[in-house]
Amino acid sequence: MDLATTLGLLVAFGLIAVAVVLGGSATAFIDLPAILIVVGGTFGITTMSFSITEVLKSQGLIYKAFLSRDRNPGNAGLLVMELADRARRDGVLTMQMLIGEYESEPFLQKSLGLVVDGVPGDEIETILLREVSAMKDRHTKSASILRRAAEVSPAMGLIGTLVGLVQMLGRLDDPSTIGPSMAVALLTTLYGAILANMVFSPMAAKLERNSNEESLVNTVFLTAAASMGRQENPRRLEMLLNTFLPPAHRLQYYED
Amino acid sequence: MDLATTLGLLVAFGLIAVAVVLGGSATAFIDLPAILIVVGGTFGITTMSFSITEVLKSQGLIYKAFLSRDRNPGNAGLLVMELADRARRDGVLTMQMLIGEYESEPFLQKSLGLVVDGVPGDEIETILLREVSAMKDRHTKSASILRRAAEVSPAMGLIGTLVGLVQMLGRLDDPSTIGPSMAVALLTTLYGAILANMVFSPMAAKLERNSNEESLVNTVFLTAAASMGRQENPRRLEMLLNTFLPPAHRLQYYED
Amino acid sequence: MDLATTLGLLVAFGLIAVAVVLGGSATAFIDLPAILIVVGGTFGITTMSFSITEVLKSQGLIYKAFLSRDRNPGNAGLLVMELADRARRDGVLTMQMLIGEYESEPFLQKSLGLVVDGVPGDEIETILLREVSAMKDRHTKSASILRRAAEVSPAMGLIGTLVGLVQMLGRLDDPSTIGPSMAVALLTTLYGAILANMVFSPMAAKLERNSNEESLVNTVFLTAAASMGRQENPRRLEMLLNTFLPPAHRLQYYED
Amino acid sequence: MDLATTLGLLVAFGLIAVAVVLGGSATAFIDLPAILIVVGGTFGITTMSFSITEVLKSQGLIYKAFLSRDRNPGNAGLLVMELADRARRDGVLTMQMLIGEYESEPFLQKSLGLVVDGVPGDEIETILLREVSAMKDRHTKSASILRRAAEVSPAMGLIGTLVGLVQMLGRLDDPSTIGPSMAVALLTTLYGAILANMVFSPMAAKLERNSNEESLVNTVFLTAAASMGRQENPRRLEMLLNTFLPPAHRLQYYED
Amino acid sequence: MDLATTLGLLVAFGLIAVAVVLGGSATAFIDLPAILIVVGGTFGITTMSFSITEVLKSQGLIYKAFLSRDRNPGNAGLLVMELADRARRDGVLTMQMLIGEYESEPFLQKSLGLVVDGVPGDEIETILLREVSAMKDRHTKSASILRRAAEVSPAMGLIGTLVGLVQMLGRLDDPSTIGPSMAVALLTTLYGAILANMVFSPMAAKLERNSNEESLVNTVFLTAAASMGRQENPRRLEMLLNTFLPPAHRLQYYED
Fold it and tell me: How buried is residue E76: exposed, middle or buried, by Cβ count under 10 Å (0-12/13-18/19+)?
């Protein structure tokens, strides 16, 4: 589970929960119709702009993206340099024995598998690049669904509040109901603001960030596999990796 | 009828209707002058920015776009691969017999018709590309009319509410009318928010999405027809289609 | 007079006028100081961002643009094809007799005049293209003044309302004046919203749209005149026109 | 002094002043702490985003830009055509006597001075182009400071109003102070709206517009000086100037 | 410490503090739960969109960037011209003795060190350019974290205010608590507005401005070091520097 996401969510929601409980009336903040209007309405309108398959598929991808660990392209680079060094010394077939060690990196396993199978380097690159681009494509779609939801939820909150206000204003003759009615009316705006600003917006930003890192790490793996397949010198691989790694993660495996 | 649109609209409007009915005063939410100001005003101002012919023409296109099924470019690709395979084996004239089977795909019928008529491949491409671009052009115009309406309707809602507030404030001496007058004033804001966020905005997004898919599927059809007209090997057609199909829909008709 | 503009304006303003009159206090909606602040202030601030000559000149252009008929580039194309056909058959000097018939199209008259005067085709193109670009230039300037006014007027409305609120709050001791004072304060916001959303914004959009169509029609005229001046075959003119006419207006003058 | 700016400011501020005075309580609109928060706060925050030297230097440039007359590139073009014509007939040294006549155009004086000094044409162009670009650079910086101030001032107005509201709500037990306290609280929002919409925003737009015209006029002067320095035919100068003068200001000095 | 930042912050916060104290109830402006919701919530949500390491690392960079002096690229240019002149006359090894004098400019020290070590000019350029780009990369990341915080904090303020309003409306029966409860509710909006407009937004703008100047000065240093390494004539260095220095800072070291 990604630490920053968990911690950030816990801190933000925790502080609001504390404020609600200290206020002494936590139940006043839960109103089923208000929840239904904002959550259901946001789901409905977001679905309208896409297709049902897309919305459901992205649900799964979003959870998965959140469970993904923080990826470090620099470490991935070091790892493949070691592998490439070893493949150079002991032959690519030694990779066969190493594949089992990287259960947590299915993409690396797949890449090495292709090397062991003797697929030529350029073909390895073509096959894996297509897969990386397909993955990125799915993530972009999911992020755009989240961004749309972040636009829709405050609008649904406003609509819910207007409905509540119109109802309240129709019963103005009984002053004792004004306060509670107005409180309920404001709840949808509150739910909409929370959903948009504390859930959908940061989730979309996170998903985009994770997707970028994931595809950077995968590009490291595929570049290494292609390089092994072409039986290149690992020094050339280091040079290749440094052309696209961000400055902070550049490699210096050989001391020169 | 497109499922996501119907379902999304039903869920969102249904939840709001339930909230309105549970509030016990559903009739308080219907006010003819308010509806006229928001709906009529939005129509009037949107028309001002375009021409009457454009607005009326797009009306029809919008309904049509909504009734269109969910298009699957991958399936369209498989279908044309089968057709191309068959044309390769049994000659393009066999297409003559197959045209009748695709009544639900008029663009495919037209494409095959050109092949059967012996129009050269490059000319087929030119004719059909022009048609696809003309269709896209009409959809873009309709989507931009919807987007404009989504901008105008909240503004008309605000104007209606201000008119209502000024009227209410002029009769402040009779306190019993304040509530209902204010409720009516807020109704135009509510109508404007609903029209913009639950109707025009998602409809524009949907129209653009459907238009993109429609023209992708039509491009699949026209590429296949042009390829048949040039009497190319279907393997080359598969390669051509894969250059523009999205990753998730790439074809692998031949096992290689 | 452009139909969509007239109708749109009438519908939108008519509906609001009906709502105001039905509310029973139409005079409550007219307040001279409020009108002066919003209209005068918007004029003043908009002028500040440009120069006086520019604002006055564009005034005239705006009225003229609104009086302009709906232009149809397709019809203009058919007209020049007929003229080019005739010029081809009977010689360009026959154009001399036809010029008088197109009083409603001064730009076409001017174009044909250059052909009759024997000005070479390329020179005709240079002279007229410069004129089309100068006209477009003036329209863009006028549209940007309208867009600026659409930004300024709600701001002036807000400022007027704040002035009114501060005055009202200073006399809170006499409750009977609160309602009417607040109503007057809200009027400037109402005026600002109406000016921006129902006048300046759609007028700017319309002006840009009309300007685009006007210069498309004029480009049709100048292309035809240049083609006649070069004594080209009208079939070539048709091809030239189809390269820039929108799909819906493409010509098919010759049956091929 | 620029007429449009003076007139626009006078009209807009005059109308508001009239509304304030007619309201009978002009002093209610002046509150020193409110002025300090909005004006001082806007100055402080704007300075934070830049450096003190930049903010002070641009102060001077802003006044200067406002005092600059309305520049007419067409007239500047005619003037340099006359000068070039004379230089062609009587030799560039006659420029020596004419320099004194153009005290109001220091950039023209400088340009002619270089011609008289016998600096080669291409070098004149290089030197003066650098100066024009440095001037434009300074104006862009000043305009961006004004744009930033237009963003900051409404924010400071909102902060001031929130401070006032919190103070007012703490003394709600004495109802007679509610009105005046709220009025004072709203003043900062009013000041912020006035500063942003009636001062900073139009000033930035004006500065950018003036800067564009100034550098267009200066480019006319430098092009002429370079052309004289290269001893070119004035007809060639006319052609050169027409390539960058806007359509409405194109020259036709020679009758052809 | 950067003067504009300190002064700007002091002026803006000082004026608000004065207004708060003059209002007589300074303690009413401090509410721990409100501070926790806005500050903690902003921190939590901002962290969610990035990773914990990134947020912590940027913390340090932000303080450092604020402590950095105002950099003057023109002065840096003059300094390196003097050094280059001296290196030309007395040999690059004299640089060895001068390095110690520039303790306040570690990047200049590093650049000169490479020259003294005899690293070839082109290699010096490659090594140092990579470092400048890595530094810029880190600053851009930090600025984007600040910009995100400036978006999140007003949203957290709004959420806090809605929570407070719902609580207040639930206890409307005791009118004496309305004022203070509402005051507390508004505090979170106030905190959010202050954080976004007076802290995060100007800090991000400043950081970007400082980063640009820092990397301009460093580019001056590295260009000079590379030029010394290539043993070029200092006149060529002056020309090189003038190609990228802004107009106001252009050098004229040699009198020509």
Answer: buried
CA–CA gap between residue A139 and residue D217 (Å, rounded): 53
Burial class (CB in 10 A: 0-12, 13-18, 19+), C102: middle
**Single-letter residue type at C240:** L
Looking at the predicted structure, is the pLDDT value of residue A39 above 90?
yes
- Could you report the per-residue pLDDT of C174-215, keeping only the tens digit for each? 777 788 888 889 999 999 999 999 999 998 888 888 888 888
Nearest to E47 by CA among E61, E32, E59: E59
Digit-by-digit pLDDT tens for chain C (256 residues) are: 567 777 888 888 998 888 888 877 778 888 888 899 999 999 999 988 887 878 887 787 777 666 666 678 888 999 999 999 998 888 888 888 888 888 888 899 999 999 999 889 888 998 898 888 888 888 888 889 999 999 999 999 999 999 999 988 877 777 777 888 888 899 999 999 999 999 999 988 888 888 888 889 999 999 999 999 998 889 889 888 888 887 778 888 886 5
Judge: D137–E248 Cβ closer than 8 Å, yes or no. yes
Q: Give the pLDDT of residue B51.
A: 79
Residue E213: both structure tokens together: 């100047």
Question: Between chain D and chain E, how many beta carbons pairs sit less than 8 Å apart?
Answer: 129
Q: How far is B47 from chain C (nearest CA, A)?
A: 6
Contact A8, A202 (CB under 8 A): yes
By C-alpha distance, which of A249, A65, A42 is closest to A159?
A42
DSSP H helices, chain E, are 3-22, 32-35, 41-49, 52-67, 73-90, 95-98, 106-116, 121-170, 178-194, 201-229, 234-244
Is residue B256 over pLDDT 80? no
Residue B120 φ then ψ, to 5°:
-60, 150
Model pLDDT for residues D35-60, shown as the tens digit of each residue: 999 999 999 999 888 878 788 877 87
Residue B4 has a CB neighbour count (10 Å cut-off) of 22
Percent of chain B, pLDDT > 70? 96
> Do the Cβ atoms of D202 and C48 come within 8 Å?
yes
What is the C-alpha separation between B143 and B58, in angstroms, rounded? 8
| Phi, psi at E30, each rounded to 5° | -115, 120
Report whether A251 contacts A78 (CB < 8 A): yes
Please indicate if any CB of chain D lies within 8 Å of the CB of C180.
no
pLDDT exceeds cutoff 90 at D186: yes
> Is A37 within 8 Å of chain B by CB?
yes
Tally the C-alpha atoms within 13 A of residue C203's C-alpha that lie toward its C-beta: 27
Residue B249 has phi, psi (to 5 degrees) of -110, 10
- Give tens-digit pLDDT for A71-87: 788 889 999 999 999 98
In C193-222, the residues whose Cβ lies within 8 Å of chain B are 193-194, 196-198, 201-203, 205-206, 209
Among candidates B8, B178, B247 on the partner chain, residue whose Cβ is nearest the Cβ of A48 = B8
Residue B139 CA neighbour count, 13 Å, CB half? 22
Mean pLDDT of the residues in chain E: 86
CA distance A163 to B128: 50
Q: Give the residue from B153, B169, B191 with the most C CB atoms within 10 Å of its CB, the best one to mutate.
A: B169
Asked if residue E124 lies in contact with residue E227, where contact means CB atoms within 8 angstroms, the answer is no
Taking every pair of Cα atoms in chain C, the longest distance, rounded to a whole number of angstroms, is: 89
CA E74 to chain centre: 20
Q: Give the Cα separation of A244 and A241 in Å (integer).
A: 6
pTM for the structure as a whole: 0.86
CA gap A213, C89 in Å, rounded? 70
Amino acid occupying residue C65: A
SS3 B233: coil
Chain D's closest residue to E193, CA to CA, is D159
